[in-house]
Input
Amino acid sequence: MAQTLPAVKLKNGEQTFGAAPHERPVPRISIAAFCEFPDTGAALQRAASDRRLAKAHVVVELGGVQAAVDHFNGQVTPNLLIVETKMQGKAALDDIDHLAQVCDPATKVVVIGRANDVELYRELMRRGVSDYLVAPLNPIHLIESIANLYTDRDTQPIGRIIAFASARGGAGSSTIAHNVGWYIAEKLKIHTTIIDFDLPFGTLGLDFNEEPTQSIVDALAAPERLDDTLLDRLLVKVTDHLALFTSPTLLERGYDAEPAAYESVLEAVRQMSPCVIVDLPHVWTPWVRQTLLSADDIVIVAAPCLGSLRNGKAFFDILKPNRPNDAPPRLVLNQVGVPKRPEIPAKDFAQAMGVEPSLVVHFEPQLFGTSANHGQMVVATQPKSQVAEGIARLAEALTGRAPQTSGNKGVLPFFSRLKGSR
Output
């Protein structure tokens, strides 16, 4: 399924970045849906299983408007009531008037119909209906409609979360994540925060030559206290567009934050940062699984070996069916061409995985070693290298943006090659 590119607006001549309307998570609400046709029920079920409705309690029933009236007669109605009508014109309006008699004032109502009727739409809006959708339904459009009901149009868009995970320890996921984050911030001019969730062994501060006195552990310890002021104190400001949420990398203590704490930290950061790069450790825990499932984009970094192939396929096997309305994870094949090391050719690796790599990074020990020792990113150390150009293409594909130039405000020529990669 094709995926809409991220929402981007121009503000004071600078491009800002955030989640598209259909990517906003729906709050913890109750939703009851009563449909007339099987295809509508299937679309509702597919939307209900989407990650953006993970907090909502959704019940889908048959019977349309009359079934909703019978069910809620004398009962409290949910936060959101979705009903489908087979009627048109005045008959459809009579149905909704009948429904209004059993609806609580605080309940929002979305009506699904088969007629693309402007007059019917206007009359429904006058009666207080929140939205009118024309079947057959697209699950993404339904999710967007629901999200819009609970979003303040005057608020800034929430940030997009891009999660990086490694198919094998040492595959270089952190290095790729940090370089992509730097490029998005410094070249695409999108305000970006990189979060290092590898609490005991993270390298984010080291890679950027920063030694903060506070870390993400301080946020995980009291997520209910997180606000803009506290986040501003905990984050390390590297440049005007780049901030870091580093790990403590101390072994004197254990790290056992509650899974909900990780979610709270992510939600707080995405409220103030248009782009959030999440560097995940190579572990499999409930909070890592949930972070991946709820991310807007996922990048799996693998080395060309059998272990990476097995683990990478396991990632895809669990992520794709649990994210039916999202593009599949992206694959980055790293450390290709290590001398005298047997490896799986990139073509065979891609065929076994069932997906073409978004980026193939060849083994460049001198370049990566020099960058690491100087606390710099590869794209800053050698911006004309093949590795830097590949990271640039990946960052641009993830954001749907290209650097703005004074002479050409359009898309760079090579960007056309990325068409269809999502």
Notes: The chain has a mean pLDDT of 88. Residues 25-149 form a domain with the Rossmann fold fold (CATH 3.40.50.2300). The CA atoms of residues 159 and 272 lie 7 Å apart.
